Amino acid sequence: MILMNDFQSEPIEIREAMMLATQRVFNSGHYVLGEELQKFEQIWAQTCRVAYGLGVGSGLDAIEIALRALNIGPSDEVITTPMTAFATVLAIIRAGATPVLADIEPDTALLSIQSVRRCLSPRTKAVLLVHLYGQVRCMQEWLDFCNSNDIALIEDCAQAHLAQWQGQYAGTFSRVGTYSFYPTKNLGAIGDGGMVVTNDETLARKVVCLRNYGQSQRYHHSELGMNSRLDELQAALLIERLKWLPEFTRRRREIASAYHTGLCHPKVRLLALPQEKSSHVYHLFPIVCEHRNELQAHLQANNIQSLIHYPIPIHQQEICRSLARDPHGLINSEYHANTCLSIPCHPQMSNHDLSQVIDVINSFK
Ligand SMILES: Cc1ncc(COP(=O)(O)O)c(C=O)c1O
Fold this sequence. Notes:
Layout: H1 12-28, H2 35-48, E1 52-56, H3 59-69, E2 77-80, H4 86-94, E3 98-101, H5 113-119, E4 124-130, H6 139-148, E5 152-156, E6 164-165, E7 168-169, E8 176-180, E9 194-198, H7 201-210, E10 215-217, E11 220-221, H8 232-242, H9 245-262, E12 268-270, E13 278-279, E14 285-289, H10 292-301, E15 324-325, H11 331-339, E16 340-343, H12 351-362
Parallel strand pairs: 2-3, 2-4, 3-15, 4-5, 5-8
Antiparallel strand pairs: 1-9, 6-7, 6-13, 8-9, 10-11, 12-14, 14-16
Helix pairs in contact: 1-8, 2-8, 3-4, 3-7, 9-12
The structure holds pyridoxal-5'-phosphate.
Pyridoxal-5'-phosphate binds near residues 60, 84, 159, 180 and 192.
């Protein structure tokens, strides 16, 4: 079976380095908020070229904490996309704010600025931009839009580790960016993890306080915070896994490029190529096909796994049916949910597997 992710086939050197890292943590006798976390936060901040990286428990928590650190909460509206992981919207609700859903662009599945404009209200406090599938696009337009409307921009980079727009890394365009290190992410832990990145010292202090019960100094609580700390073991493992990220990202791009060259079925459409001087990190490689379910069955019959990101847009989730949205509707999101299919695009995929996927899709009847 050609899988969507294949951790078992990772180089043995990674496994060995992770075993040593585990031992390092055991030997330290310090398991939460210690040196491994500090080191990983520094390395990830340096990698993204940002002043602060603050490790938290998950990508979901990173977004909630970022919103709360910006003082966004009850009576505030945050505009985002319905074509995302449920966590993006859940984080807004958990912060006490109100999500408002705008539609996407059909050629990228990213948030549409025209639709966001229709969602603005006097209560709008932020746009939560999701760098979906590993794409970062049009950042100057988003910065200008948010500045001119006096609202914050927050970047959900859970799928965009090392993605750049005009030489600048995802998560560093706005006051605050958030990452997930869920195992299947481009940089994944061996469990849950997340990070908030920012250049703003005040915001960084608030994140540090919020992730640790709202404690500003030992036994002094200035906020009603959370327990959301990236533990030493995950930080130590992430330090080792990060060493492989550039090579793994290069391989993802190679696979994506082969798909762009090789896939040529008249009923299959690919999403847009990255913009000039920008890079895509292909966390996922979705294709679009009106006969998506039949195509998925054809892949399955040929031992190729595929997944749908995402089959149910947020506004069609049972618990979210009453969420506010673009008055023109969310037609593009609904179409994308019905037609998108993510095909294998992971660094362990062999060239043989890659040709197999291309041949099987091109032979779809
Ligand atoms: C776009 C997006 N945002 C947020 C999250 C939440 O991250 P986590 O699973 O670490 O809570 C995910 C991961 O599922 C995601 O893909």
